[in-house]
Design goal:
This protein is an all-alpha fold. 65% of the residues lie in helices and 0% in strands.
Length: 150
């Protein structure tokens, strides 16, 4: 599979896994257990560094409860069971944004002032509104904490 194909599969697999397991943290561990592969292998699938062997695809789609064609990227219609994925209310989205930012602040910049915290939570909230993945948002927020603008 091409790198672009791996990216499509990883994004779709991640959506399906979050829906299946109820959270993004720990998806690789749970998927590895369900698929009978190592955590490293499942993590590579979720990160787009590799894709499953051909014989694993049917089982993967079955576990994730999504059509195989959608998972492979050949069908672009979002499966019914994923249509409410990311449909959080404003309050839920704000809570998720705070949940991304504050643990990072406590670890990376414990003496950050309220203005910095507010700016980072607002940034995370906006990214969530655009449908961005929580892991990517966390990475951006951490990078901004370590290398603040201006």
């Amino acid at each position: 599979m091409t790198p672009q194909g791996n990216k499509i599969v990883s994004e779709r697999l991640e959506k399906a896994c979050i829906r299946l397991y109820g959270r993004s943290h720990g998806c690789a561990t749970m998927l590895a257990k369900d698929m009978g592969v190592s955590i490293q292998t499942a993590s590579k699938w979720l990160n787009g560094h590799s894709s499953p062997a051909q014989e694993k695809w049917p089982r993967l789609a079955e576990i994730c409860k999504v059509p195989l064609d959608w998972l492979l990227g050949t069908d672009h219609a979002l499966p019914e069971q994923l249509k409410d994925y990311g449909a959080a209310s404003d309050a839920e989205r704000a809570g998720i944004a705070a949940g991304i930012v504050f643990p990072l602040l406590m670890r990376l910049v414990p003496d950050a002032d309220k203005e910095v915290a507010t700016r980072l939570v607002a940034h995370a909230y906006q990214e969530l509104q655009m449908g961005r993945d929580e892991r990517h948002i966390a990475g951006e927020v951490a990078a901004e904490m370590l290398h603040p603008p201006g």
